[in-house]
């Protein structure tokens, strides 16, 4: 089997038609307004409100700062129960707010926080749960909401991967007290870089506006120690154009996912998560599979390396676990993270993006079968 001539990356950003972006740029040039709540951003915010079916949204220059500001603005402190199986930014956002992460194990089917293991980790210092809809799969929403309510905890979702996902016809951002979406270039939907918060308490709108703009209330008053986390006009333009392609983007990812699943689900040692529940409209943002070394006849890491020989750059999202990174190794882990450990050692995410050709997907499957 021959290697691919050009590298096949785990993902590539969708680029809308060049002319469409250039056309939008004309308005920005004419306005001579590049950032700081410009007209393109304001229009885009309106489009997102409609798309997300909520008035309470706030836009940022990236998802990480959006989450950091969310925690700061909501006054979260002490300890927060969270997952170790995620991108490192989830826990970084806690650390920037001097909050102690308390790592909790995940579910074997969806890789999301296991509600059955959350309660045992609650202490008098616990103020919130920060769960992640990892790979766009919704967390156990009802169970987490129930725990949060009974223990008076704030329920925050890192929905970085979950734009376009809905449950029972409701956008995923309407669950919990607050959700953060990432619009980074590597996401199914992007605004070059970008982030969005959706939240229940409309009072947070003003606080987030202050925090992302240095804390300015007006020219002479600074009311809180804010930072600079504003989305600019070019980002808003890209995001606005991309919204038009959202359905096509999800459909394409779904087709790619279906090919992988059809070709590989029966291969010994390759495991796919069960299909999402019927009430979930899924976005197929990633294609994570687990590799059982014994059955597959090769370890996940060997497979990762062998794929590279064919010019296929799959990724081990998310490995290592966050508590294994040097900067978080000193965080005490009070309950075993058995499932998370196993998943992080077996997971590999396969290439998926809008212009990935079907015959390339088939060839990747041939390589995996071989
Ligand atoms: N929470 C979660 C759960 C997240 O997954 C993330 C981000 C965040 C929070 C934070 O949100 P942001 O602050 O990023 O908005 C990538 C992304 O940079 C990161 O946004 C994402 N999660 C994470 C899962 O993936 P890397 O370090 O893997 O990126 P990189 O540069 O290796 O790129 C991945 C692949 O994409 C490569 O094969 C190259 C290709 N690529 C990348 C870019 C940027 C392109 O083809 N074109 C491009 O423009 O983190």
Keywords:
370 residues, alpha/beta, seven-stranded mixed sheet, three-stranded antiparallel sheet, 13 helices, globular, binds ligand T4K
Outline of the structure:
The protein has 370 residues and is α/β, with parallel strands linked by helices.
Question: What this model shows, in words?
Answer:
The protein is an alpha/beta fold. The protein is built from 13 helices and 15 strands. The protein has helices at residues 18-31, 39-52, 63-73, 89-96, 115-118, 141-150, 204-212, 233-244, 246-264, 293-296, 300-309, 338-346, 358-369, and strands at residues 8-9, 57-60, 79-82, 100-103, 126-132, 154-158, 166-167, 170-171, 178-182, 195-199, 270-271, 280-281, 287-291, 312-313, 347-350. The strands form four sheets. A seven-stranded mixed sheet has the order 2-10-9-6-5-3-4, sandwiched between helices. The chain has a three-stranded antiparallel sheet with strand order 8-7-12, with no helix packed on it. It has a three-stranded antiparallel sheet with strand order 11-13-15. The structure holds ligand T4K. The site of ligand T4K has 23 residues, from helix 3 and helix 4. Ligand T4K binds next to helix 3 and helix 4.
Helix-strand pattern: EHHEHEHEHEHEEEEEHHHEEEHHEHEH
Bound molecules: ligand T4K
Helix count equals: 13
Distance between the termini: 9 Å
Average pLDDT, to the nearest integer? 97
**Spatial ordering of strands, largest sheet:** 2-10-9-6-5-3-4
Strand content: 5-15%
Largest β sheet strand count, sense and barrel closure = 7 strands, mixed
Structural class: alpha/beta
Helix content: 25-40%
Task: Give the low-pLDDT segments.
Answer: none
Radius of gyration: 21 Å
According to DSSP, the number of beta strands is: 15
Shape: globular
């Amino acid at each position: 089997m021959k290697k691919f001539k050009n590298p096949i990356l785990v993902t590539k950003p969708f680029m809308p038609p060049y002319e469409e972006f250039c056309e939008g740029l004309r308005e920005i040039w004419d306005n001579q307004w590049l950032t700081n709540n410009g007209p393109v951003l304001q229009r885009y915010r309106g489009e997102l409100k409609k798309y997300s079916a909520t008035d309470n949204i706030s836009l940022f220059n990236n998802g990480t700062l959006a989450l950091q500001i969310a925690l700061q603005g909501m006054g979260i402190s002490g300890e927060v129960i969270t997952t170790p199986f995620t991108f490192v930014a989830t826990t970084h956002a806690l650390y920037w707010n001097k909050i102690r992460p308390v790592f909790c194990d995940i579910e074997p089917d969806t890789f999301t926080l296991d509600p059955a293991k959350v309660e045992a980790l609650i202490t008098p210092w616990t103020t919130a749960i920060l769960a992640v809809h990892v790979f766009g799969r919704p967390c156990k929403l009802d169970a987490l909401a129930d725990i949060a309510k009974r223990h008076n905890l704030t329920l925050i979702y890192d929905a970085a991967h979950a734009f376009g996902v809905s449950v029972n016809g409701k956008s995923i951002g309407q669950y919990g007290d607050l959700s953060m979406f990432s619009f980074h270039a590597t996401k199914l939907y992007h605004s070059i870089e970008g982030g969005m918060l959706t939240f229940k308490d409309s009072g947070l709108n003003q606080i987030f506006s202050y925090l992302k703009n240095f804390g300015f209330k007006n020219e002479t008053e600074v009311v809180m120690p804010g930072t600079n986390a504003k989305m600019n006009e070019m980002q808003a333009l890209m995001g606005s154009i991309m919204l038009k392609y959202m359905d096509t983007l999800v459909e394409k990812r779904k087709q790619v996912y279906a090919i992988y699943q059809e070709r590989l689900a029966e291969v010994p040692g390759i495991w796919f998560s069960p299909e999402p529940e019927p009430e979930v409209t899924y976005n197929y943002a990633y294609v994570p599979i687990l590799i059982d070394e014994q059955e597959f006849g090769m370890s996940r890491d060997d497979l990762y390396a062998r794929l590279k020989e064919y010019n296929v750059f799959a990724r081990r999202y998310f490995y290592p676990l966050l508590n294994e990174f040097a900067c978080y190794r000193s965080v005490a882990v009070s309950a075993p993270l058995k499932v998370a450990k196993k998943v992080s050692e077996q997971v590999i995410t396969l290439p998926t993006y809008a212009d990935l050709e079907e015959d390339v997907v088939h060839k990747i499957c041939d390589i995996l079968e071989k």
